[in-house]
TrEMBL record:
<keyword id="KW-0812">Transmembrane</keyword>
<keyword id="KW-0472">Membrane</keyword>
<feature type="transmembrane region" description="Helical">
    <location>
        <begin position="797"/>
        <end position="815"/>
    </location>
</feature>
<feature type="transmembrane region" description="Helical">
    <location>
        <begin position="204"/>
        <end position="234"/>
    </location>
</feature>
<feature type="transmembrane region" description="Helical">
    <location>
        <begin position="360"/>
        <end position="380"/>
    </location>
</feature>
<protein>
    <recommendedName>
        <fullName>Membrane protein 6-pyruvoyl-tetrahydropterin synthase-related domain-containing protein</fullName>
    </recommendedName>
</protein>
<feature type="domain" description="Membrane protein 6-pyruvoyl-tetrahydropterin synthase-related">
    <location>
        <begin position="104"/>
        <end position="707"/>
    </location>
</feature>
<feature type="transmembrane region" description="Helical">
    <location>
        <begin position="386"/>
        <end position="406"/>
    </location>
</feature>
<feature type="transmembrane region" description="Helical">
    <location>
        <begin position="32"/>
        <end position="53"/>
    </location>
</feature>
<feature type="transmembrane region" description="Helical">
    <location>
        <begin position="151"/>
        <end position="169"/>
    </location>
</feature>
<feature type="transmembrane region" description="Helical">
    <location>
        <begin position="120"/>
        <end position="144"/>
    </location>
</feature>
<dbReference type="Pfam" id="PF10131">
    <property type="entry name" value="PTPS_related"/>
</dbReference>
<keyword id="KW-1133">Transmembrane helix</keyword>
<feature type="transmembrane region" description="Helical">
    <location>
        <begin position="305"/>
        <end position="323"/>
    </location>
</feature>
<dbReference type="InterPro" id="IPR018776">
    <property type="entry name" value="Membrane_prot_PTPS-rel_domain"/>
</dbReference>
<feature type="transmembrane region" description="Helical">
    <location>
        <begin position="246"/>
        <end position="267"/>
    </location>
</feature>
<feature type="transmembrane region" description="Helical">
    <location>
        <begin position="329"/>
        <end position="348"/>
    </location>
</feature>
Amino acid sequence: MNIDKDVNYFTRGNASRKDMLKDKKQQYKNKVLTLILYFVILCMFAIITILTINKIGNYPWGSETFGYLYKGNILYDSFINGESFISYDINWYNGTQLLKGSEPIPYYLLALINLLTNDIYVTFSVFITLVFIVGGTGFLLWGYYCNRFKLGLFFGILWFFIPNNLRVLFSEGNLQLVIINALIPYLLLIYYKATRENKFKNYVFLSVIICIISLNSMHIVIMILLALFLLAVFDTIRKTYFGKKFFIVLLSLLGILLSAFWLVPALGEGLLNSNKSEVIQKLTQNSYSLLDSISPVLRFYNVEVYYFGLSFFLVGIFSVLFMNGRRDIKNLSFYGILIFIGTSNVFIKVLKNIPFSEFLIFSKVTSIAIALILVSILLWRNLRKVLIVIICFILLSDSMLTFDLIGHNREFPEGLVYSLDYASEIATQRIGILDLSQYGALPSYYLKYGVKGKSSNQVFGWQWKSANTSENIVMINTALENNYYLVMFDRCIQLGADTLLIKKDLINDFNYLDECANQNGYIKVYEDTNDIIYKYPIEGTFGTTVKFDGIAIGKYAENICYSFPNFTKGDKDYIDDYTVSELSEFKAIFLSGFKYRDKKKAEDMLKEISEKGIRVVVDSNELGDEEFLGISSKKIDLEDNYGEFYFKGERVKIGDFPEDEKIFRCSYLLGGKDDNNNYINVDTRMLEYMKYYNENLVFLGLNIPYFEMITKDDVALEILEEATNMESYILPDRKCVNIQIDFESNRIMVNSENNDVIVPIAALSSFETIEGSYQVFNNLVNLKSKELVIEVTYPKLSAGITISLISVLLILIISKSMVNGRIKSYLTNNEELSK
């Protein structure tokens, strides 16, 4: 045996391994240095971009941007005062828990940046720069992972200029979605690695990034969770092992629960409370024609139009059709195209019937579709360089056209600001901006932070759905939109608005507007080409006392209040939640979309009330087949108009249905006493629309209250006057009384010389009475004592923290078990990414 030869063999082997290890270290060092170099280049592009954006001015023009800046600024004020949370804000919506119903990250990020800049507009510029860098770095890391640095850098720079990302940032001003779009490359990278590498850090990072996205938007993260689940299902169809992907989806779900410390107390029951009509409206507003979505021309006529990007669509189709090799990479583009198809308005009829369809707004995750297409190109190993150059060129050209159209801030809006300054100068309690949100969130921000030396409280704000007075806001906006100015002014007084700014192009009859304003006591004090300002002649803080002659109970009962301002909307939809004595205070009761817990009790109550001489009107449109007091209704669809219409035994001419409701769904009455005086003739059938149970208890059909509300038809109005025994367009007996309102941290103190005063403070569910008593009236505090002290609480905090802690524990246990093999996760060879 030649010992020297064996020694030389082992020596050479050790040297070879050392050289290999040294080469790997050098390669790693080179990759890190390249990553740092490209990161510096990315930052330089970000700085150049923000300078270009601000070349005209640094004032944002997105419809929602100033709403985010307001919350960020007021949170910054809290930081300055040594507080890290806003429990209550008196400025918006007659008082609101500003962060309730809101995910916190955008506001805390803006507040933290503002600590450094002390200028909210500079803060917004820094925010844009950070979004550019963070989003771009995600694709840099993809380039590092795939060892394709140049393409990763290009996609990182391109990511900011994606047409959808630009629209969300500049036009919508939806900063929650902007942050999520910046995080999407990280989400896809971590998910991709988690499904292919059995590493503890990947599983934990996935849960953490899902948690971060949850704290930006719960609705979007639920769509992301659904997308990850579908990805797992599609991979299973390809006969890969589903078990691991199931646990990855489970870790994603736990990532959502990880954010429970905030979401449980902040969102409460607000996440799933959308009614069906709101869901359909939301789906309709966020669904588009597929051809329009990829048309590169429409954006030149409307810079705010939804544009997926023709170039991105074509690149996605190209990769689906021509990518060879690994099917899982090709499927990424396929999934992106599927998301794009999901934005089509063709699917509204399908989506609206799916449970929780409010979470299936595919246009909100457009950037995920784009990112999937870009990642598939990054992972396409054998794609020719010339094709890569062509793809990059067409993607960049398409994106830069959009940037040239909308990628800018604006100059200071002098015209609107002058009107806001004047309104703020004369206001003594609250300002109402009646613009149907056409001015965006700017007025809501400016009245707090823009007017020098004064901050004005407001009836409106931004993100009205999270406001406790959302029903009041909807009623005022509906009245403005449909020219019901009398009730509009009255309800503004009830909300404490002594000053109103009305956008002029929303008004159809200025003389009638002035007449209604004067009837309510408002005086016109200012007018220019864009706005009118009215002032109620009262000084100091005030509440109102009011006597309504009618009450409207039920989901749709408010429709009658527009033509009959002397009706108030009841705070409860269940008849038997009221007492006979409560309802006996009114001259008329109108029921539409009402409910009851005990049918017999509800029937007996209405009979007893009607026998006292109080008029009770039951709108039967939602009554259905079930009899109520022996009367039921049957649905019918009428086209164009009611046809032959008889009222009090005589044929009358009633108007046609509106253009957008030519097929009108309504109900006619069955059962009870026959009444041959009030009916319509349809196909030789006599269908009754008004029946009397007794002299004062009336059933009304044909959806006449709604028809009258949307058409202002004279005959329909006369029918309602007959049914309710009330005159239309009569104001309630309302008087303004001075009160004293003080705020101290999270306490509200009210003093009044009178009881039963409606205080223009929203009655929040988180209020805890310390002294005195109050009831809720139209979502406002109805004072029942001369002194009232209320404390704003923050319920469900401990429950949220507990859920978060349990989620942390489960994430660690499941991740460790997957790494240690306690949870089996078989990987096929073709799932490993060759680097």
